[in-house]
């Protein structure tokens, strides 16, 4: 299903056009690093870089249950993943917002583990344990799906802010 796309004229150049969702989706798929924003129990934000995979209309990421982001998600599933060019005058920065959902199905985890390794190489090989990824050192990582409820695109150069609602 394609999202509803809207250019926000308040934050866009006069000649800007909305960024097509297909372009944003491709960048989400091919980006290598992302920034995950979660919320601590006391309401303070927490932001950290991580790796992620785009599959079947959602972003997937993993974290240890005892890591700050894992503890945050245990109490508040609202989060955002961000990626972009880090440049002022060119590129497209993206923010994907929504509720994270734990992935525990063994078949889904096997597919995601294969996707991780295909994207990032053998260094990021995971086995599948009891509802988690297991790394070579034996550490467990919970896997989360972030299916967008809203995404934002910030085009540089011919500045334009696009909102996609799902």
Automatic annotation (TrEMBL):
The keyword Manganese does not apply. One of its GO terms (cellular component) is cytosol. Keywords: Oxidoreductase. The lineage of its organism: Bacteria, Bacillati, Actinomycetota, Actinomycetes, Streptosporangiales. Residues 1-20 are annotated as: Disordered. Residues 1-13 have a biased composition (Basic and acidic residues). Residues 22-133 form the Pyridoxamine 5'-phosphate oxidase N-terminal domain. GO terms for molecular function: coenzyme F420 binding; oxidoreductase activity, acting on the CH-CH group of donors. Gene3D superfamilies: Electron Transport, Fmn-binding Protein, Chain A. It holds the Pfam family PNPOx_N. This is Nitroimidazol reductase NimA, pyridoxamine 5'-phosphate oxidase superfamily.
């Amino acid at each position: 299903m394609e999202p509803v796309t809207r250019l926000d004229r308040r934050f866009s150049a006069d000649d800007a056009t909305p960024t097509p969702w297909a372009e944003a989706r491709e960048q989400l798929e091919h980006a290598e690093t992302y920034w995950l924003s979660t919320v601590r129990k006391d309401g303070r934000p927490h932001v950290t870089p991580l790796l992620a995979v785009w599959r079947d209309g959602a972003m997937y990421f993993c974290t240890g249950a005892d890591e700050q982001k894992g503890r945050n998600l245990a109490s508040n599933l609202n989060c955002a993943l961000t990626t972009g060019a880090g440049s002022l005058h060119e590129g497209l920065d993206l923010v994907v917002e929504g509720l994270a959902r734990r992935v525990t199905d063994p078949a889904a985890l096997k597919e995601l583990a294969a996707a991780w390794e295909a994207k990032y190489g053998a260094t990021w090989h995971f086995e599948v344990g009891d509802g988690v990824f297991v790394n070579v050192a034996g550490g467990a990582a919970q896997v989360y799906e972030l299916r967008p409820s809203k995404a934002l695109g910030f085009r540089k150069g011919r500045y334009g802010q696009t909102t996609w609602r799902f």
